[in-house]
Specification:
alpha/beta; D-Maltodextrin-Binding Protein, domain 2; five-stranded mixed sheet; 44% helix
């Protein structure tokens, strides 16, 4: 009878706790449930095409997370709407720790240049941590005969508006990196948007696109095979995977640097203890030697932040993105 009474009291306590949470408008998830996360597969929405940096990086990291926690992390590619389709699906998902969004800086840049975006990057998502920093490299087909940033800028200025440049979506980091570089270098050009990096890289290799600021992850094999020539990287320091390629600032274009990260997010009302558990699991995976080796081969550089610091960075970058869009005269579409 004693055991029955204890069990009854525990059930009543648990029930009252859930009722209290509901009455307070909070998700009914207590510490025990957060401590047990995950008890089932986690859905991972990537609003980019397969093969892009924002697809390859999370697959590498989350495979290890799944191994560590004993549950599957199922990646779903949901491109479309300039990344807004997949992002909105996660915004509307239950905030229970079982739906994750993998995004890049585009989570803040897309709302800065696209009209009627169905989410607010600050109000609708909680940031977990960046998964890594992905240097962007400006590539050109060897057949173009352009071997340096100096030669590129000279050719672009000699033929105003004739240079065309690719971008994996409007308002994405590769797009804004190119716009920042173009404005700083002082030349005009024609934007050609694509659905993803693989398509843009193919068109650049053929010479149909003159230049493309590509995430280093999908571009690196093509550079190493001599199919593309790397002119410069957009990051504030040289990429460890391409140590001989100068930064755009080193190449003579001041105020042209632009960092590109890939990060993990969940719906805003996800309990903070669950966010903390997810953060710890992801950081542990990133620190695993085998994962670091794989990320290194992809050209990804380590970038880890606390959820609070990453939230603050998102808010800051949202303001910066709006200013860059205004300076580039990108009208909301």
């Amino acid at each position: 009878m004693g055991e029955t009474a204890v069990n009854r009291r525990e059930i009543l306590k648990a029930g009252m706790g859930s009722l209290t949470a509901v009455a307070a408008g909070l998700p009914a998830m207590g510490p025990a449930r957060a401590a047990d996360w995950p008890t089932k597969a986690v859905r991972v929405v990537v609003p980019y095409a397969p093969g892009s940096a924002t697809d390859l990086v999370p697959r590498t990291v989350l495979e290890q997370v799944g191994h560590d926690v004993g549950q599957s992390f199922v990646v779903e590619n949901r491109p479309g709407g300039g990344t807004t389709v997949g992002s909105n699906q996660v915004k509307q998902a239950d905030p229970d720790g079982y739906t994750m969004l993998i995004h890049s800086n585009a989570i803040v840049t897309v709302p800065a240049i696209q009209a009627n975006v169905p989410y607010d990057p600050v109000a609708d998502f909680s940031a977990i941590t960046p998964l890594g920093n992905v240097p962007m490299v400006l590539v050109v087909a060897p057949s173009k005969g352009i071997k340096s940033v100096k030669e590129l800028v000279a050719k672009a200025k000699a033929n105003p508006g004739q240079i065309n440049y690719g971008a994996a979506g409007i308002g994405t980091p590769p797009h804004l990196a190119m716009e920042r570089f173009r404005l700083a270098a002082g030349f005009e050009g024609q934007l050609v948007p694509f659905k993803g990096a693989p398509e843009a890289l193919t068109e650049t290799m053929t010479g149909r696109i003159d230049i493309y600021f590509a995430p280093i992850t999908p571009a690196l094999p093509l550079i190493r095979d001599g199919k593309l020539l790397a002119l410069t990287v957009a990051s504030s320091k040289r990429a460890s995977a391409l140590p001989d390629v100068p930064t755009s600032i080193e190449a003579g274009v001041p105020d042209s640097d632009f960092d590109f990260w890939v990060g993990a997010f969940v719906p805003k009302k996800t309990p903070r203890d669950v966010v903390a558990k997810m953060h710890a699991s992801i950081v542990k995976a990133i620190k695993t030697p085998s994962v670091q080796e794989k990320l290194g081969k992809l050209g990804v550089e380590e970038l880890i932040m606390t959820p609070e610091a990453f939230d603050a960075r998102i808010a800051k970058e949202a303001v910066i993105a709006k200013k860059l869009a205004k300076d580039a005269k990108i009208e909301p579409q």
